[in-house]
Amino acid sequence: MSLCRADKFLLASAAVTVGSAAVFGPSAWSLGVPFGAHALLMVDGIFRPESAVLYPTLIRGRTDQPQVALTFDDGPDPEITPAVLDMLAEYDARATFFVIGRHLEKHRALGERIHREGHELGNHSWQHSYLLNFSSAAGHGVEMDRCSQLIKSVTESEREPLYRPPVGLKSPAMARAAHQRNLNVVAWSIHSRDTFARDPRAVANGVVRRIRPGDIVLMHDGHDRDNRHRPLILEALPLLLQGLRERGLKSVTVSGLSNETQPATPAPNDARLASDDARS
Ligand SMILES: [Zn+2]
What we know:
Distance between the termini: 11 Å
CATH superfamily of the largest domain: Glycoside hydrolase/deacetylase
Bound molecules: zinc ion
Shape: elongated
CATH topology of the largest domain: TIM Barrel
Low-confidence stretches: 260-280
Strand content: 5-15%
Order of helices and strands: HHEEHEHHEHHEEHEHEH
Number of domains: 2
Radius of gyration: 20 Å
């Protein structure tokens, strides 16, 4: 059985604890060290979506080409996603849509359009529950598998989609479930702040000013709550795409950004992990 990175960390801290307890006798340290190690892992998984401590996480792709990856989370949304797709087509840009499974089930035709137009469908869990991070590895697995299976049926492909946990949250249990499935986990290097900003121009300018080749940008075309929408992207995206064009940067899929060569069709399984390629 191969252990995931989080389990190795926990086992190491347990071994140190047992060793020190054997040598120095049981003490506050004996209990404090494993508890502290676990607490540190939980804090890291919650506050640092880009962290690869718990699990190898892609936050940036190849930097030797003038390419970036725009990513859209929480859709598909029947009011927003079609317009986003129109804008991307107008600029000949490709993107990755980390969809919520229950939304994709309701709006399957939109998922098919995303795939048909050369974009990539990524797995963003089935429910997008904020409590998912506190569930067991089995609980994470159910969420991962259900959305993954639907994406595979929409794309008619057996390739395992990239995975982005809800809110980018990680836990040792999430890492265990991802490890068992050999998932490629993706975070981002630039958060567009489109979920809390009010000025679409500020969102677009903020991204265009910071972006460099290889960057992965987080945006939202959907909302995790039913019947709520995130329309700001409709005004921000054309400005952003225009800004990328002026800077000579092309948006490709996350898998395209991380591959040796840009594939004609998205190839999620071929994604290379920039932060660490050891699938421990
Ligand atoms: Zn989300």
